[in-house]
Specification:
Blueprint (H helix, E strand, L loop, with lengths): L1 H22 L1 H36 L1 H5 L7 H12 L2 H13 L5 H7 L8 H13 L2 H25 L16 H35 L9 H5 L15 H10 L1 H12 L6 H27 L19 H21 L1
Helix pairs in contact: 2-4, 2-5, 2-9, 2-14, 4-5, 5-12, 7-8, 8-11, 8-13, 9-12, 9-14, 11-13
């Protein structure tokens, strides 16, 4: 009975959202168009190549050859490195692949995702740094606070598992044409899922702000919903490095949903959600120290301007996104047969 009531409530909520989408079609269309441009000009350029490279390195097993510490798992170390420098979903994607291939356990991945989660330098410098502070260095400083927080949690993880025997389940195969092709196809599929989630959240944000205009005045709500909206903030409005670091450390509800999508059924994310209660205070502490250090060095933010997604109305990147979707869907259809 309780499950049936829950199903009815979910159906009613989805139906209500559907009606609101129809009634606010103009606002939704504008938001979806802007989100597609964001995917084409921000998200894919900063994530796609790094997702391909990180996937290829992980699958090749080259890190296993380089590591000499018996208690250091190569797969988790790879996910930690690229999860912090590659972009939010990269760490989750690498962990999901290693769980599916049997190289690490589900429980290991559930703990590792807690510190394999970062925005990457391209997004931090280009969006957070330039747009908010007018200087890319401040975006990197905010990212550094996030990485230090994750490194602290990783160190605790290693201490807790110092007596666990190491394993080398993955044979070192090296790089090959097939490995690179598989990595590109895998990254393309991940980009489709990520961009689809961004578009969906932009539509939800549009109807939310359309029906409740007062919410648009809530300072950080847009960035909390979807992290790329951090570009709309400015130091002129009293935004500090600590605040930006916290927002980057949280990643936004849209990114968290992307993590759920990428992880799929490979591993759970309960520990990840709880870990934000530890990671965010750590991030704030590191960001505060870095902010004070920048102040002592006399490094100040410049006057920031709202960045443009593109200098021209070119549709080529949008067409590339559409082509990526078509190729991915065609490939999945062929596999299912």
């Amino acid at each position: 009975m309780r499950k049936k009531v829950a199903d009815y409530l979910v159906f009613a909520a989805l139906a209500a959202v559907g009606v609101m989408l129809i009634l606010k079609q103009r606002e939704v269309s504008e938001a979806v168009t802007e989100s597609l441009e964001s995917c084409a000009y921000r998200i894919i350029p900063s994530l796609f190549a790094m997702t391909v490279i990180s996937g290829a390195i992980s699958k090749s097993g080259v890190v296993t050859r380089l590591i000499r510490f018996k208690r250091l798992d190569a797969d988790i170390l790879t996910a930690f490195i690229f999860g912090n420098i590659g972009g939010y979903p990269v760490g989750a994607k690498l962990l999901a692949e290693t769980v599916d291939s049997g190289r690490i356990s589900r429980s290991e991945a559930e703990e590792a995702i807690c510190f394999c989660y970062g925005c990457g330098p391209a997004f931090a410098a280009g969006v957070a740094g330039e747009a908010v502070f007018g200087r890319a260095e401040f975006g990197i400083a905010a990212l550094l606070a996030v990485i230090l927080s994750n490194a602290t949690m990783y160190a605790v993880y290693l201490l807790r598992h110092r007596n666990v025997s190491s394993k080398k389940a993955l044979q070192v195969s090296g790089f090959s044409t097939k490995l690179m092709t598989d990595s590109v196809n895998s990254a393309a599929g991940a980009m489709v899922g990520i961009c689809a989630m961004i578009v969906f959240f932009s539509a939800l944000k549009a109807i939310l702000f359309a029906y409740f205009p007062c919410l648009s005045e809530v300072k950080y709500l847009a960035a909390i919903l979807e992290i790329s909206n951090i570009a709309g903030l400015s130091t002129c409005k009293g935004v500090s490095l600590v605040t930006v670091a916290l927002l980057l450390g949280f990643g936004g509800l849209c990114v968290i949903m992307q993590i759920f999508s990428v992880a799929g059924g490979s591993f759970g994310l309960t520990k990840f959600c709880v870990s934000r209660l530890i990671a965010l205070p750590l991030t704030a502490g590191y960001a505060f120290v870095i902010q004070r250090l920048l102040g002592r060095l006399g490094i100040e933010a410049a006057a920031s301007e709202k960045i443009r997604l593109s200098q021209s109305p070119s549709l080529i990147p949008v067409i590339c996104v559409a082509a990526m979707v078509f190729i991915t869907l065609s490939e999945r259809r062929g596999v299912s047969r």
